[in-house]
## 1
Amino acid sequence: MILSVIIVNYNACYFLEQSLCSVRKSISSSEWLSAKGVSEIIVVDNYSTDQSREYLVPKFPEVEFIFNEQNTGYARANNLALRGANGKYILFLNPDTILTEESLSECLNFIESHPVAAALGVRMIDGAGRFLRESKRGIPFPWDAFCRLAGLSSLFPHSKLFSSYYQGFLPEHETNEVDVLSGAFLFIRKKILDEIGGFDEQFFMYAEDIDLSYRIIQAGYKNYYLASTSIIHFKGESTKKDLLYVNLFYRAMVQFIQKHFGSGLIVAILKAAIWTRNKLSVLALLFAGKLTPPAKNIKTYLLGDTVSISRIKKRIYMTGREIVTERKQAGELIFCEGENFSFKDILAEIQEIKSPVSIKIHAGGSESVVGSDSSKTLGEKIAL
């Protein structure tokens, strides 16, 4: 078997539906993977309470679903699937991602032609078309972590001195060797995982991808950022900015520093800085207030596959949205994937949008619409 795709789901039912549709399309579009029995998809559900089992299992008979009886965390759930995976290559994928038709082929072409490559990630954009800097990162050595915590990496995004955390000195549209890959899309040789082990299960969520990437380098192998293909990562759904997220994220950063850099004055100062940043983030959340619910009279413009448009047009009126005939009138733009409008077309269109508009995606044949324009807000999903 060539490829095993592993996805951990936790209450991301409709986002996962769209993601699985895109994975299915990417597999069927690939000369490497279109033959029967050369790929597999494994979904581990971490005790979701959003009807994921009832909704998704009948729709994706080719997917192997594993349902945990509790939320075991991201690392442990991935390792559970990894133990039963049969692929030469493993793709760890978030449930709130959209692949393009050539994404998997591009990864296979690159890694097969670059024997030194142990793992690779791809260029990621969010639901509004913005490049996600975590597509390529550096090891958070104390200085690099400090620059990120102090905001220096944001002030000097292309500096090698101040922005090593996000490797901002490496061009977004060029393939390069990098230090750290994102767990949202991590394509890796199975034999490397057999040698160094999977994710470290002391990390419940966050930093486990940094840790794995670092261990790959420590073992003498190389990680690559592949710029020739892009995916969408709806960060607002998978990383909800609540108190639990904040505490888990900063705790994971401290765990990583303690594991790899031990103790000492510099590490102690950095740990103090992390906890200070944690408390400031908590205060910011407390003062931010609750999210305002979406307005009911939203003007919606549909673009894409004609069959998919006609299919959802009949049902979207039930959501209180008004369908308009000109894009400039819209407050919301729904891209409809199908036979004559691909996921690649959607990704290209999203990156060309300049005016403020809420963007959603509907995969052909699916029963939902999803979107998340910002990592600071929750993703929106519409069950049709």
Note: The first helix runs from residue 13 to 28.
## 2
Amino acid sequence: MQFLDPDDIDFSAYLKATDSAQKVKEAGVYLTELMDEVLNPNKDPIIQLPWAKTHQDFSFRPGEVTLYAGSNGGGKSLITGQIALHLIRQHQKVCIASFEMKPKRSLERMLRQFSGENIHKPRYMDKNKYIEEIVTRLRTFSNKCLWFYDQQGTVSADQVVAVARYCAIKLGVTHFFIDSLMKCVQGEDDYNGQKSFIDELCSLARDQNIHIHLIHHIRKLSNEEATPNKHDIKGTGAIADQVDNVFMVWRNKKKEHQLSAGNSVDPQTNDAMLMCEKQRNGESEDWYSLWFHKDSQQFVDQWDGAPISFDNQPRF
């Protein structure tokens, strides 16, 4: 894993897209590409979500933008961290630009997800040896496939676009995560700014043939047990309109409240939902029940499911 320090890299050269003249091509070029696509439909790898139940319904296509929306503390960053690990497992190159969490803290959570257990309470060996071993495994697993943009707080939309373009061109990054939209556009009611930023991201994804993952918040609902939909996304409706895919991340607060009150709850009741509210280039818009495995901080797709072993090594 590597870090991109904004003070060490001049991103100014990547603020603008390539010359428009390079985008004007004769129709035959696209016909050739289309023919190849039709004749060889499985030539490119299918990039999937971590959960088997989603594999027939959804895949990450290059040139698209996926939005993950949910409430504060709803699990958006945890889910996208797990998705990032699964992308690396599929030999994709990932950069995470979190303006809400330092890379070290993000890595701590990902290390826990990667190990499949609570790294602060190792079960099978002394803690020092365990941490050294699991860090070495994650370092090997993510070698030249995981970058972090080390910048917290608010940042300009232009700077984010420049960083993403730099990562695509110079590092070969294929998946760029932005956490979150509201750190890139000042003001919840700056609808023009939001629309312009999303438009830039969509253009960048198409131009560089990468996938951009964008985390965003929803409005405060009537109560925290309510189930959101894409119309609850904060800001302009153009956000959901412009992106290619929309996932709502919902945490089952009702179950949590019942457990906190000491009531018995059916363990098969889901802890969360990943709800596909839009998939422009796919046929399915399904909802997926997930269960939270506390020690690993992973979401699993069965109530008694085991955490994913990302590097296919036995757990300690």
Note: Helices lie at 27-39, 76-89, 103-115, 127-141, 157-171, 191-208, 238-242, 253-260.
## 3
Amino acid sequence: MDETKRNPFRRAQWAIDAAISVQAAKGEKSGAGYFGANAEGVSLHDGYAEPGYDGTLVATGNWNTNSDIKTGTRMVSDDTMPRLARVLEKIGFEIEWHDEWASCDDCGKLVRTQPNSYCWTPSYHMGNCEIVCLNCLDPAEHLASLEGESRKANTIDSIDPADHGYKRLPEDYETGFHRGQDSDPRLVAKALEKQGIGRYLFNIDSQGQFDTRWSCYVHEEEWDLLNQEQFSEEETDGPSIAEAAERGLREASRKMADLPEGGIKYATIDVTTGTAEVRTVSHEEFVRGIK
């Protein structure tokens, strides 16, 4: 670790140790025992590997207040974690939630594992239960691991398959909730394998709230096996999600009309079959969360 960072990390660890002691004392005094948001779960990290983040000191944890923890007839509230977060920020640490980030198994820097926008895509590779950030990743090995997989795709913007011996098919594919966005990578894979091509991979070009745009690449070693005319005649669209959703909504509307009055009408739609299930739920169930 860089010597200039050693003192901030040491000070942060002192603060964490103090918070652990405070929570232990509170738990013993109140009988609350385990706190859901606890200082023992805080981790310190030497910066980000996630694109767009520049901090060099980062702390991850559950920063919630432990509110209304029932201990027999007593209710205990604990604000140790928000207070600890403020102390760590004063020391110079960025504060992140532990369930949204993970550390690279090679360099230890942080990558985001949960979306923070509709267009977010992972900037890491996960294999054999290990996470490798884009800085530590070997692009050629990463792309090779995606070959022949219709349920996997390259999501890292800085890795262009064209720079590593792959040629892009001319088709632009879209999968989503709008009409015409029915491309199915499984059917594309099947059409390529029909021609004896196994070294293909998929690349996510862009992602939105309701759709994903993607492309397909074939390694140059097998490019000559591709019969473009034959491939263009193959069916690469699956069932229309938009049409199925429309059928489901119409079915839900008809079924809801037959439900008795006096409750909240609730419907679930299966966009793969275009069917709907409806029922009436209570106000309490609706507020609590329908399962």
Note: Residues 242-288 form one domain.
## 4
Amino acid sequence: MNNSILLNVGDIVPLSQTDGPGKRFTIWLQGCSRHCLGCCNQQFLSHKEKHLLSVEYLANEICSIIGIEGITFSGGEPFEQSFALAILCEIVRKNRPELTFFCYSGYTQKELFSSSDSGTKLLLQYIDILVDGPFLKNRSGHYLWRGSSNQKIHFLTQRYTTDILTQKHVTTQVFVSADGVASMNGFNLDLNLLNLLNNL
């Protein structure tokens, strides 16, 4: 197994409930060239090295967690690190075949499937649910797993059906670190609430 294949990771939430169906191991990839106006993840736009982690290390971490339904790739732009993510998916699928893969991308489904990039083609073979399209601030709102109404949820495999969209889902999570700092995960977050929590 080649542990020299690295991913530039911005952040990880091992038990996210807001980034797709069920509890998920969410990885925010560091780096995005699209720079959508009003991006809510601006800390992940820079391509500067943040946490360089081997795919083997991440696969071991993912496979050791009981109770997750799958893995979510966010960012940043996951398809800018598509080859390494595909290798990660391959390792996880061999060891935990029940886990699903959910991926966000600022590119549209049409752009991704027409890409000549070999890593993109490989990664798309593993993705069960794709949320595509750039974030558009003038179309932002409260949408399941999406920041703006132009973004679409695509079922790329048979592992889920559209019935999943009518179920109840967690939209916001609040985490408090050991040193008492609060953070939030989800869409259209209430930053006033976050500031209030951190000033208690």
Note: Residues 189-194 have pLDDT under 50 and may be disordered.
